[in-house]
Amino acid sequence: GAGVSQSPRYKVAKRGQDVALRCDPISGHVSLFWYQQALGQGPEFLTYFQNEAQLDKSGLPSDRFFAERPEGSVSTLKIQRTQQEDSAVYLCASSKITNTDTQYFGPGTRLTVL
Amino acid sequence: QKEVEQNSGPLSVPEGAIASLNCTYSDRGSQSFFWYRQYSGKSPELIMSIYSNGDKEDGRFTAQLNKASQYVSLLIRDSQPSDSATYLCAVPYSGGYQKVTFGTGTKLQVIP
User: Fold this and answer.
1) What is the SS3 assignment for A84?
2) Which in A112, A114, B65, B74 has the greatest CB count within 10 A?
3) Which chain B positions have a beta carbon within 8 Å of A102's beta carbon?
């Protein structure tokens, strides 16, 4: 498809488990963003990639969160030792060039930590 | 002070009326501003972008920007029940980082 895809759409994890969330951006898009959205809140910025370079990770809430985009296309957000407060929808977005371009969002992954 | 502020609502308007959604931001260097619409359980989708002071119209939507007042608004004319959603204001950070800050969103309800 032509849009941003994410997998899995839903993930249930037991507290303490590690999870990996995948994002497949629009082909050719340079920029890739990860956001965390809690219920009733706007998306909260987590991290930004320009091609394979992670240029901004200022929003990652702890060192349990790690993201990579090794070949400048698909990205993975990994959360180690999940906690209940990690329960949220994780959104991935891509844009053509920079953060001032339109962002196209994927459907999100809803993570529930029990 | 939050970087991007919106009234969370809900804002209720009757069908056919004008809905006015407001957003203030703290980064004086910001040059681009976005309005996204998010239906319940769905991901955000772009409605409007605006870069210059003044008004920008697209169909029933008008975005207004006042950089001196650090204020951006979205007007929806002839509101329809299908416009019922949460409207998110997004402001890319200007200071060399690539973060984009979203407001908490304003929930709009259009009453038939």
Assistant:
1) helix
2) B74
3) 34, 46, 49
3-state secondary structure at position A105: strand
Give the closest-approach CA distance of B77 to chain A in angstroms.
23
Does the bond joining A8 to the residue before it have cis omega, within 30 degrees of 0? yes
Which residue in B8, B19, B42, B36 sits closest to B110, CA to CA? B19
pLDDT digits (tens, 9 = 90+) for A90-112: 999 999 988 778 899 999 999 99
* Element spanning A36, H or E: strand A31-37
Question: Is residue A5 pLDDT above 90, yes or no?
Answer: yes
**A47-51, A86-90, B5-9: which has the minimum mean pLDDT?**
B5-9
Task: Say if the Cβ atoms of A45 and B100 lie within 8 Å.
Answer: yes
Q: Does B7 touch chain A (CB under 8 A)?
A: no
* Cα-to-chain-centroid distance, residue A100: 18
Please tell me if residue B104 touches chain A, with a CB cutoff of 8 Å. Answer: yes
